[in-house]
Amino acid sequence: MHGKECREGRYSPVVTVLAILAALVSGLFGVVTRGPTTPICRAGEPCSKPYPHAILVFSRAGATRRVTTDVKGAYRIALAPGRYALRVQGAQFGWKPLFVTVPSGRYARANVSVDTGIR
Questions:
Q1: Where are the chain's structural domains?
Q2: 23 φ/ψ sector (left φ>0, alpha ψ -120 to 50, else beta)
């Protein structure tokens, strides 16, 4: 056996275990906010608020994972390293970012802003 693959074209058990471990120690965390929360934003007052119970949907290569924020809008999800499309379920006026990247071997912060459409 040379490299990552066996002669049959399958990955060796060691590579498979390493891939699983990388997924366990990699992922994203952050806070989801929504705003503006009022038609007129005032100086010194926040114009956005945490988004409790928001459902984030991460998709890549046909695989989809979901996570729900807590009452403070925070989330944490284990994901395999790579680039994911991000969707906020039920968001009508958009969100940012649309794509997120999970680094290998660690968790990265990915805060999300959801537009309420208030103008």
A1: 13-115
A2: alpha
Residue 31's alpha-carbon distances to 42, 91, 108, in angstroms, are 22, 16, 12
When the candidates are 1.20.1290.10, 2.60.40.1120, 3.30.565.10, 1.10.443.10, the CATH number that belongs to 13-115 is 2.60.40.1120
Q: Give the mean pLDDT of 53-81.
A: 96
pTM, to two decimals = 0.78
15-44 tens-digit pLDDT:
666 666 655 689 999 999 999 998 888 898
Report pLDDT for 25. 85
Give dist(CA 19, CA 55) in Å, integer. 26
- pLDDT at residue 9 greater than cutoff 60: no
Instruction: Tell me the torsion sign for CA atoms 42, 47, 102, 60.
Output: negative
